[in-house]
């Protein structure tokens, strides 16, 4: 530990030296705008502004230090482990050699090109190049058909090389020190290496901030000059977009909750059913929402919401905004040229998403005289200043804007978006469970290791969302039947009474009540519906369901009219067929009664199930719930009762195994840390040597 | 009980032979009847596949234990003893025709299952049989050049459900060389068709046309013979339900290929509308798939990343043993990429619009291009360095005009910089173009894909050389671009205009392995707004005019027939029940919230529409877990129905 402290202070000293030399050598003195310094993130260590480093608050330094330390420890441990694994004593694998090799050119380019505006990419592309390099010359293994001992040695050698390769790669990983502005205006400084995704950084921040870890937390970048803002997606590498910032950029990275981030998974109907009336959307059941997500994100291809609408487009180089009819497709945004139809063939491509990101525009009414403030922008991430290559669009209201921005994100990121969501749900669930647990133990209340009942309920709903229990699907998909209330079950399944005389003409309301006996009856009368020929066709009756003549239902006669009401056949002939209930095939049907003489039908491949279906005539199925229960026992997939209960607060909780202990180090930064320090040290040494 | 004579036609006795008379009593069961007939024919053969067909009633008598009385067969009945399996000509999605034995006695659903089992297509429930379109008779004589028919009538599936695969192919195909060839045809996509073929095929021009197609589906719950299909008739096997369950390239070679073929033809014949950009991407993918399936014998490849690592390691090892000096050299080999340097001409439209191209010495380094006044000055500071990472690369090429330009749109903080690079010849162009493309994706010349990228570009350029007018079949690396796009673009663009556009789209897909490319094609197809909608012309209750009902895997769409606008959609999961009144051919559907609709069907029969909706609901009941087992009973329950005949 002392070593490290010493090293760090040493480091700071070196940094001073380094910057001085830098200033002398190449740098035109940077405008000392304090604001820019404040929000500055630094590119690599060579660019690190020492002043700003000094200005960092105490706790920032501590945090940074902790990171570095953890990195060091980690590397050391790893190394020790690796060394332990090797038997050869002669293989001295100090961590320095590879690191120094990486370093030997690492700082050089960064020093030599600091003036170039595209410093980031230029500087660091060289190190990146190395990994694929060796591939081009195909290998021929030299004399390897030798005794096993040599093979073992060869294997070891290969391992060593692998290790060395990994180290080399690590040594060249680009790292940034990033200042993240928190939601309360304070800031934290993090070290981020180029392999870390936004997700990793978020996890890191969760640990540092002890926030509630819900899925809305996100990192965003703001561009004050263009008045833009964009939430990073969790799978992006954070370093990439930051590398596009210019040297004097006032851009910031912000850590905040963004409800729009995963809104599409919480309320998919707002995006996929936006054309429907508001009430339908509002009353959407949780199960249906899950279904929508499943439909659009879990198939072989991602379905992009079919958006279309009139938006304002800022004409290139002009100050006017012009209305156009835009359509969103998976392949890009299109518009309808004047006087053309909306058919695909006439559409003109406005933009494709390969090379652009979508940003929210802030206060464009003032800045660009936009019709409203609800604007979004499409541009290449590298573009940081006003340019004709930025496309500005303006919507009538916030809702429309949100619709479009989310739609574009779906089209651009596709499946990753959903994967991200699932990951953050897991993360949120684990953390919540952990908090619950600690809270529980701390308060010494009852629940020791399981979450509270409410949590549990939520969890089950959540689980449903993630790995939808298969059985639940079919039912809901079709009939939208809510799972049966358990108490009803026994009564309904039990009575398979004989076709009962009471059956006859139940008026519609009654019919539902009677459906238990009805179902059972229907099983006995499978052939009942087989004679539609004689149905008096009466469309109206189909809708109105007048009560049928009582006698008909019993004597299994061939004259059952289409409007004949009794619930029995429903389950049988119509119930399942009638569309409300795919899953409950009355598999257990007793064989049909002897064929109805004079009626030819039952076709050869004669299973009992076949004929009943034939007539889905005009019989009203009983309400789905009922019939489901009636026939519910035999079908393969009965929905789990909890399904309906737990769906509501999906986002918050998910129980997945025991919560891991809290980590204090960023997982990815860790291994690189040691190299990083040594690199730095070497760089200093070299610099001094040069002077 | 009194005996009476039953007359039975037996095919084996010849078409002219009079019906056999057998003396039966009403309580004789069908099995006994067959036995009697067989004895009477005195023909010795395997009769086990034969069954009785009752002509007047259009009905099979398949229950041997049922008595004549039970079937209500009297002396006036005309029966015939005929095989249940008969040869059928089957048109596949890829346009070829197979002759195979199909079951004529069981419901079509089961016939399809049998056929799919034979062809190694999983999830047969998604497919069904379609009657081919009536061919106009006037051309009959010219069309004497019958399409090639692959004969599979001798093929029998192994009875066990376990499909033993040797070399990715089901056992029963491995019998002979011919069948192996047929399997290859089934599982590898066919070369692009000649443009004339596409132009000649009928294309739907209106919603009405698209609706007509769906009137030709066979009824899944009745047998082929019941629906008037005769021996040797031609039927089309098509994917009917557009939800492809559990598509797994490992097991689904044939399914994937046929699905791709169906999708390809849907695109080429404008069955599904798409935009120009999408068409170009489809074309690029078709080109790529065609090329890769020629060169790649087996789609199975191991993980490339692992290979890379292995080869990298081995290569390193070789180096190390040779030179002993370890890390320094290693670094050298890893960082030094192959160099690309040459004199090229550059043009920046923005700055000096009048000046045109100027020559400089160019050097490619990592993902950047630097240029110098001359080769000699290349050690000094470059005039400019351009980092191509994230830039847009587009070809601007005309082989005929010997113009080989690369258009670069390089992003910078200020916006995009437009730059043209002009190369002298094809070779130079393809190398620089490949380098630019890799650089735009952040890769360097050292990347393993560089040489293949160069080749790709060269072979694509070769396309431009082929004369678009010549009716040449696709050869190894030349292909007619008109074969890749729908006829609308034949009129809109000349071939040489089309090539660069396809090439532009091609650069994004050129590195995909075969299966990925196939899947990508399907994904884009599935992403089209009009994908998977089956149209029917219907008349809603209370409306005077015809409208269109679109049926998809999750919703019903009401569409205005004349304009094509969506009027309303209803999702299945809000559906409570549906009913069919067969007499007036009307369907009534009730949705949640007391929404009721009713319509009668105009273009197709009610049964087809009903089966489509029921079928989709059936598809939705499938789950990943309950693999393999097909719940046929449920299918019939949902799609069956009574035909009021």
Folded structure, characterized:
The complex is a heterodimer of chains A (691) and B (645). By secondary structure, chain A is α+β, with helices and mostly antiparallel strands. Helices cover 45% and strands 10% of the residues of chain A. In chain A, strands 1, 2, 3, 4, 5, 6, 7, 8, 9, 10, 11, 12 and 13 form a 13-stranded mixed beta sheet that branches. With 645 residues, chain B is α+β, with helices and mostly antiparallel strands. In chain B, the strands form 5 sheets. Chain B has a 7-stranded antiparallel beta sheet. In chain B, strand 20 and strand 21 form a beta hairpin. In chain B, helix 8 (276-295) packs antiparallel against helix 15 (514-527), helix 12 (450-465) runs antiparallel to helix 14 and helix 16 (606-620) runs antiparallel to helix 17. The model of chain B is unreliable at 138-145, 298-307, 319-336 and 467-477 (pLDDT under 50). The chains are: A alpha+beta (691), B alpha+beta (645). Chains A and B meet through helix 5, helix 7, helix 8, helix 14 and helix 19 of A and strand 4, helix 8, helix 9, helix 10 and helix 15 of B.
